[in-house]
Amino acid sequence: MIVVQGGDERKRNNQLGKERACMPLRTPQEYIDDLRKMKIELYMFGEKVENYADHPIIRPSINAMAMTYKLAQEPEYEDLMTATSNLTGHKINRFTHLHQSTDDLVKKVKMQRLLGQKTGCCFQRCVGMDAFNAVYSTTYEMDQAKGTGYHERFKKYMEYVQDNDLAVDGCMTDARGDRSKSPGAQPDPDAYLHVVERREDGLVVRGCKLHQTGMINSHEILVMPNNALREGEEEWAVMFAIPLDTPGVIYVYGRQSSDTRKLESGGIDTGNIHFGGQEVMTIFNDVFVPWDRVFMDGETEFAGMLVERFAGYHRQSYGGCKVGVGDTLIGAAQAIADYNGVSRASHIKDKIIEMCHLNETLYACGIACSSEGRPTAAGNYLINVLLANICKQNVTRFPYEMARLAQDIAGGFMVTMPSDKDFDHPEIGPLVRKYTQGSGEVPPENRQRILRLIENMTMGAGAVGYLTESMHGAGSPQAQRIMISRLVNLQHRKELAEKLCGVKDRDDIDWE
Amino acid sequence: MLMKLKIKYCGGCNPVTDRKKVVNDVLAILRQHTSVEVTAEQPDILLVMGGCSVCCVDVSQEIAEGKKAVKVGGYLVDYCQTRPAQLAEVVAGKLLDKGEEAG
């Protein structure tokens, strides 16, 4: 176990704090240089990785995150990408914003759609934004009920995040061991991250968080409990933030299908040549957290509220980000239809319309749950939780159907096409290109690139973000169904029907 | 002591509570503590009765006029979650507290 600096001390001493005190918007280059300075314990393919920011498998995911910094610098995207901090009045990146209105919630979804369009993948910064907003309102209500001081502490932390334009990984999903047992009933207590030691200067925690999207592309980690907790499970009711390079944290990079294509030269076979996603197993091997970075310690009764709000925000997010990625898949389907010379066929047109219909339905859900948002007691805005769950439930299905339609339109060559090296081979290359020729003057390479992009998004490395993340990210389908059953008033609906057919009397028809 | 109470309902398109029942329960509790006159004219305090968490009732004018209000959105009272069985009691308690502040 190793002691690290607390948040305030770190801010004073840390290079980020010194250089960036009043310059809230970082450039993408500054962001990438930050990562190059990180000294973390990272493993991939059984080996320790140094300078991960320049590793060819990892770099596309960093590029995707960098786009959240890039677009905030551009006047034409400023309205969506930036906001005014309610804490400092400074202009900040919207990814660090505490939503102050339903308009902010709507703009969040639009920003996510934009980023999905620009990257064609998960850009990984949403989970932190969703965690900020959930922790902000929950700590406020916790303090009101329990007389704790977490909210003021968290506000100070948020000022640090906003003024330094930090990327923060919201960290929730535990290893969970036997899924039928709650944290306190697990044979191994480490199955859920928990406090193993309380000291005068802070806490020591142990456990593991799985599926951490964008983890090592972040400056900081904001850890939250995995689920609602009961009395007796106080040691699992813990919430805190630490810098990425905190000693004792071990990162193990997740594999993605076709990931080693990124090691090949050329890049065409990767499909999405600049961008990608990232998931990391994160092990907390007796990690010290100073008190000024602790935002919950034992308040079991607020774990459920926190989880529900975080999940709600994140289920809203998918009505933006996956729609943006869907836009690129629709574009790829249209392109390959043109390249194949089939874009005028009525069934192709109809399939692309169906893709648009599905995609815009997801967007409608994202906008609806935002427009129907409400203020919390803390003052930041929360989405309509029911509609956010409806949104995410659709997201568990529609991208799969869109992927099926895109593959239908693309044709089988998407998975039988020779490698890029064969296209460039001095002897067989001309023959491969000759027989890859599609419609008119479209070069074979264009067809090759678009087919690889569809492959990437529907069954390659990009499918991790576009499909499986749509299924399980922010909670698997059943989690939304449980919430829907809790939030819908079925009795009201039953009475509506009973009154219409006369099972129940009605007194509201008082005219002759 | 007389509480002049204005009640403003949402449209009730997708309620999770029976708004009229909640209001009747609240009034019954209030009348155990004080006299209550439900009125739209010069109220002491406003009860904003929304059927779901959105609570889309427009009370911007009353708030601008400095009126005290208790806002109910489904099971949220002034944006804080309340147990269903305690909803009317919590709302009545808030009205009494704020009514007293309003003088």
Query: Quick one: biggest sheet of chain B?
Result: 6 strands, mixed
Element-by-element helix/strand order of chain B: EHEEHEEEH
- Taken as a percent bin, the fraction of beta residues of chain B is 25-35%
Overall mean pLDDT of chain B stands at 94
Class of secondary structure makeup of chain B: alpha/beta
- Uncertain segments of chain A: 1-15
Could you state the CATH homologous superfamily of the domain at 305-491 in chain A? Butyryl-CoA Dehydrogenase, subunit A, domain 3
Give me the Rg of chain A, rounded. 24 Å
Q: How many DSSP H or I helices of chain A?
A: 19
In total, the number of domains of chain B comes to 1
Instruction: Using the alpha-carbon principal axes, give the shape of chain B.
Output: globular
Q: What structural class do you assign from the helix and strand content of chain A?
A: alpha+beta
Major β-sheet strand ordering of chain A: 2-1-10-11-7-6
**What would the average pLDDT of chain A be, to the nearest integer?**
95
Q: Could you list the spans of chain B in which at least 5 consecutive residues all have pLDDT below 50?
A: none
Oligomer: heterodimer
